[in-house]
Every structure is written in C-alpha cells, then in structure tokens.
Amino acid sequence: MTPTSGDADGRGVVGRDPTMTPRKTRIGSVLCALVGVLAVPAARAEPVTVTIDSGALTGTYAESVNVTRFLGIRFGEAPLRFAPPQPARPWGSPASSGNDTGSGNSTGIWNTTSAGGPYGAGRPYDASAYAPTCLQQFNGPADARNRSMQWFNTPPFTGPESEDCLFLNVFSPGPAPVASQGKAVMVWFYGGSFKIGSGALPAYDGTEFASRQDVVVVTFNYRLGIFGFPGAPQLDPEQRNLGFLDQRLALDWVQRNIASFGGDPRRVTIFGESAGAGSVDCLVTAPPTGPSTASDPAPAPPFAAAIMQSGQSSAGISNPRFTSRNSWQKLARAMGCAQTGPDGLACMRAVPATQLRDSAEQQALAFFPVHDGGAT
C-alpha cells in the first residue's frame, strides 16, 4: 500500500490505501445538514486581519460565499504530555523551554519557537490554512485500521498529526467581522469514540453553514486516546480527562475572542455528535464557570445552549475507570515503563508519540474519560 501524505510515517488522518473508495459515514451524514461538506468555490481570496488577545491574525475572505475563514488558530500552547493545557501565549513572545516529546526527550515539553511558526514579532499570525490535528488511534491489524480510516474520514483529510494540536478554526459571515455584529455562535465538538476526529475534517468545514445561517462557526481540536484520557494511576483524577480540559480551554478562548469575529459570547451554542455529544452532555451536567470576582460573583458557563446528536455522557463515560487504567498499564509494560510512581510517568513521557500510538492500536486499547468528581 502507498502511504498518503501526513506525518513522518506516511500517515495522515485518513488511511494508507488511496485506492479505496471512501464510504459515506454517519458522522458526515449528520453534519451535512448542519455544517456542509462543500469547499469554498475557486475564487479570489482577500486577506482580512483581526486582533485577539494573543495579537493580530490574518484570515481570508471568499467573496463567492461571503464568508471569512480563519484557520489553524492556536488556542493552547503545545502541551506537556499528560498535563493540563495552557492558554496560547501572545504572538512573538519567547517560547517555552523544553524539547519535542516526539523525539523521546524526557522533559515532555514541546518547544514552540515562534520564529519557525506561522507568526512572530512584528507580523500577524497566518490563519489561512489548517494546522495539524491531534494524534489519532485506529485500533486493529493493518487491514482493519485502513478500512476504519477510510470509513470514518469521508471525504479524506490528509493533514499531519501531532501532539502540538491545540488549534481552532473560525468561519465568520461577511468580509469584515466587527464586534457590534453580535451574531450567534456555534461551537462544534467532533465524535470518534475519544480516539479519532479533528476540527479540520472537510465534513466539518463551517463555510456553508456560516454563509447560509448567518452564524459564526467554530471547530477545534482536543487530545484523544492516551494523550487525551491517559488513565495513569500516577495522575490525579481531574488530570486524566485532558481532552475535556482542552475543550474547556477552547470555550474560554471563544468567550474572550469571538467578538473580534463578529460573534456574541453570550449567544454560544455548543453541539456535537457521538463522543462529541457525550462531551457536550458533560458540560451541561457539570457546567464550568470562570473565577468569581467582585463585579461578577456568579459567572455564567461559557455557553448558552447545547445540542447533542447521537450520544450522551453515560454511553462512554460510565465505563469503569479501570478500563483506562488497565489500558495504561498494558501500554506502559509494552514500552518498558512499568515502574510505579513518578518514574513510570516520566518514562512514558520520554517515549516517542508515534510509538505510543502504534502500540495502543496494535493492542486495541481503549482510553475513555473517567468520573473525576468535579466540573468539566
């Protein structure tokens, strides 16, 4: 089989066999009516610049559909493996110290050097193209994995995978978003059994939905599999649902910045399918709030409405927490990291990311959210 474009091992989010005929999926079918799967028609794309709390960024306006798209916006720093996410730093500020965990460095911190990225001191962030998606986990032997990749990614998306994946996309009606527009906002949570999915899949392109419904659409990435829901006994329970914390960070970003794209932070609807619906259910059941202040002693949740499509929290999150813990222990033994305590966690942080993913796939391991006793 010939690898498709993607990361170093020839793997994107879709399968390795480009000759396979993609099949329509339930995920794509459900979203077709809401988000649309049409790409922006060929037309002149005009640059549009807005300013958010991290700095200026430039997207593109497509006159043919009257929508401005801002793609691949960083909302979280390149994450420390198995640790909560941190908000994106201002463009051009000094990078965090550390090294790429994908290279096996034991620090487990990604080096996000601004000079080599899409932005830097004195120039806007380039939001004209999608950024990497989070690492995907397609379980089973090679043939089964390839079939699953084709089945659940229709139409194909061939972008790279990375641990550095906390990016979002904004689709705003009109050529020049302004805060006074106060449009309704729809934030999409993708499904995929907490193992697969991406805010950059073509099925989730918000262009047509923004154009037809006159709403601001946001899609985003959250960590998956062992990287999002590690189940490590060395971690406190509230640190085992990292994918949920990524989702919360994205919603915080929307509250702070969506007015710059013409959206109203008081009119945010969160919606998702399958595992995405389960995530939405968790947010509704245990809604997060910001810190209390003298002027706002009871801050509201970061959304006003919610839609759950073909999923609820009890479908995946009622699984015993032992499922994820047992999967962690099996994977740790396979990686030679069976030590208990901090040494075992440090050992797992030092393993290349693709090695963890590949072994989890081969063993068909499951990593699900766990009840942590607190707000999402």
Description:
The protein has 376 residues and is α/β, with parallel strands linked by helices. The protein has one domain (26-290, 299-362): Rossmann fold. It contains ten helices and nine strands. It has helices at residues 26-32, 142-151, 207-213, 225-228, 242-257, 275-285, 313-317, 322-334, 342-350, 353-362, and strands at residues 45-52, 55-62, 67-74, 125-126, 167-173, 183-189, 216-220, 263-273, 305-309. Strands 1, 2, 3, 4, 5, 6, 7, 8 and 9 form a nine-stranded mixed beta sheet that branches. The termini are far apart. Mean pLDDT is 80; it is low at 1-10, 12-42 and 97-117.
Layout of helices and strands:
Blueprint: H1 26-32, E1 45-52, E2 55-62, E3 67-74, E4 125-126, H2 142-151, E5 167-173, E6 183-189, H3 207-213, E7 216-220, H4 225-228, H5 242-257, E8 263-273, H6 275-285, E9 305-309, H7 313-317, H8 322-334, H9 342-350, H10 353-362
Parallel strand pairs: 2-4, 6-7, 6-8, 8-9
Antiparallel strand pairs: 1-2, 2-3, 3-5, 5-7
Keywords:
16% strand, 376 residues, carboxylic ester hydrolase activity, 10 helices, Rossmann fold, EC 3.1.1.-, AB_hydrolase_fold, Carboxylesterase_B_CS
The gross shape turns out to be: globular
Total helices: the number is 10
Distance between the termini: 42 Å
CATH architecture: 3-Layer(aba) Sandwich
Family: Belongs to the type-B carboxylesterase/lipase family.
Region (Disordered): 1-21, 84-111
Signal peptide: 1-45
Pfam family, one: COesterase
